[in-house]
Amino acid sequence: MKKINLPWGAWYxxxxxxxxxxxxxxxxxxxxxxxxxKMKTAAQIKQEANILKIVALVKNKxxxxxxxxxIGIVVDDLTRPTxxxxxxxNLIKELKKEEIENKFLHIFISTGAHRVLQRDDLLKKIGxxxxxxxxxxxxxxxxxxxxxxxxxxxxxIYVNKFFMEMDFKICIGGVLPHSSVGxxxxxxxxxxxxxxxxxxxxxxxxxxxxxxxxxxxxENILREDIDxxxxxxxxxxxxQVVSNPDRSIAKxxxxxxxxxxxxxxxxxxxxxSFKIDKQYDIAICNAYPLDTEFIQSGKALDAVRISKGKIxxxxxxxxxxxxxxxxxxxxxxxxxxAPKPFEGxxxxxxxxxxxxxxxxxxxxxLLPEETISATHFFSEWKQxxxxxVKTYKKTAEVAVFPFSSIQIPxxxxxxxxxx
Length: 419
Known about the structure:
The structure is a single chain. With about 425 residues, this protein is of the alpha/beta class. It contains 13 helices and 21 strands. The chain has helices at about 40-50, 50-65, 85-95, 120-125, 125-135, 160-165, 195-205, 220-230, 260-270, 300-305, 370-375, 380-390, 415, and strands at about 1-10, 15-20, 25-30, 70-75, 105-110, 135-140, 145-150, 155-160, 170-175, 175-180, 180-185, 215, 235-245, 250-255, 275, 280-285, 310-320, 355-360, 375-380, 395-400, 410. The strands form six sheets. It has a six-stranded parallel beta sheet. A six-stranded mixed beta sheet has the order 6-5-4-9-13-14, sandwiched between helices. β11, α7 and β12 (about 215) form a beta-alpha-beta unit. α2 (about 50-65) packs parallel to α3 (about 85-95) and α3 crosses α5 (about 125-135). The two termini are about 35 Å apart.
């Protein structure tokens, strides 16, 4: 048997899931676990994040008596793989060296409509030091927001009232390929991250001409909508973190305007892209490092979706793997029973290809009915293995995308010419 090691369980062990395929099958692995081979030192992280510059800017505001309510630091939640603990810890320590009191230190969790983080979650994300020395605010999209106006796309912008009251605002977030806004990061941490439910619902609306792009921010209406909304919120400093596929920090882009996000996007696009030049019978798309919740795992299918199925042969198989450590997950707008739940047939974009789910931690009945009837679901690899062998017998070509949710395929060779 050929043993395939899939990274598994972001924030929940970050282990490997070993699965088996027949020895006679041809298997190609795409993607490295790190963009940068050398691990960054604490000093390098501190320097790239410009911690001392932030402290100098904050000190200047204190000297001018401009800090009345506090310093607001917004970070993403556990649905994102960003390791911010070392950045936040160093920042808070340096601020406290300047005798800045704890009452001025506020951390905002950019949950959008996601679930609230509990103590153990916060210790994973921001660490014990920040947890013990800062006031932590969980964003609540159904209240305590302030209206800032509308974008030219007629999206009403409601943002967390307490964050808007902060006198110095810092955004610390990850930059990843994204299904519709091109790349995460930048103003997305604020809208929809700290937005009211009316804004979140408006942003997710479907209407003629309102379409996003995967891994492309050029002429992307959804990204433009977010960036315009971001200009309504005066941010003093951006720290944009690019994680290696294994969730260690690859590179940090930081500065006083949103241009640092553009630099981070350029870097990610280069590092996350890979060439693929032929078709395969089977694609194994692993959701790590976006495998905390199953509801986020659909992003792992983007690598196949944007190729319009060219990566897979006719009547081929797509296997979506997810640890889904927290189960199905929660979204206040898109979960079952919410105002705009995910619905329809997940397999429809892939034509005559078979879509298979491998997940040990969810009940498939939570999926839309159209998806259940059109796909196969397995909670044990042994059963999935039998299904694949029955379909392909002794010969199959398999493409494995171990970090599929953050990988960008570039078609080349014969694939580039397929209609």
